[in-house]
Design a protein that fits this description.
Layout lengths: L8 H5 L12 H52 L5 H13 L4 E3 L2 E3 L1 H28 L1
Antiparallel strand pairs: 1-2
Helix pairs in contact: 2-3, 2-4
């Protein structure tokens, strides 16, 4: 059985019909490449920022939501503990804020968790659009 012959170098150097090079005028090609490069930069940057902030928002929101419940269960579970210790723990649980107001933005644990999921969606959208932009460059 004979092995198939290797294609010649001249045949390999020729462009096939499905990979024919695009021929644009130099100005239109430059504008098109610049547009897709700016889109790639913007969406890739948004993706990177969202990938950093999403887990941070989720962890802080879940921790903030769980902390009062965990501390209140500690104070109520140990009935034989010192009364003064229970008073201190109740004061600590009561001093954890339910919301923070920064400027005109009200932050709650639920809002931070929602923002974390929203940032994950933005990261996925940024990755998708960056891939489309990179393919069109």
């Amino acid at each position: 059985m004979e092995a198939p012959s290797r294609p010649s170098l001249s045949r390999m150097a020729q462009a096939s019909e499905d990979r024919a090079p695009r021929r644009h005028s130099s100005g239109l090609g430059f504008i098109r490449t610049t547009f897709w490069a700016v889109c790639y930069f913007a969406f890739y940057f948004a993706q990177q920022v969202a990938e950093v902030l999403a887990p941070l928002c989720l962890v802080i929101g879940i921790g903030w939501m769980a902390l009062p419940h965990a501390l209140s269960s500690i104070t109520t579970s140990n009935a034989s503990a010192d009364i003064q210790a229970q008073d201190v723990m109740n004061h600590v649980v009561g001093s954890i804020p339910t919301h923070l107001t920064i400027g005109h933005q009200v932050m709650t644990p639920g809002v931070l968790i929602f923002d974390g999921f929203l940032l994950m969606a933005i990261a996925a959208l940024g990755a998708t659009i960056s891939a489309v932009a990179a393919r069109n460059m």
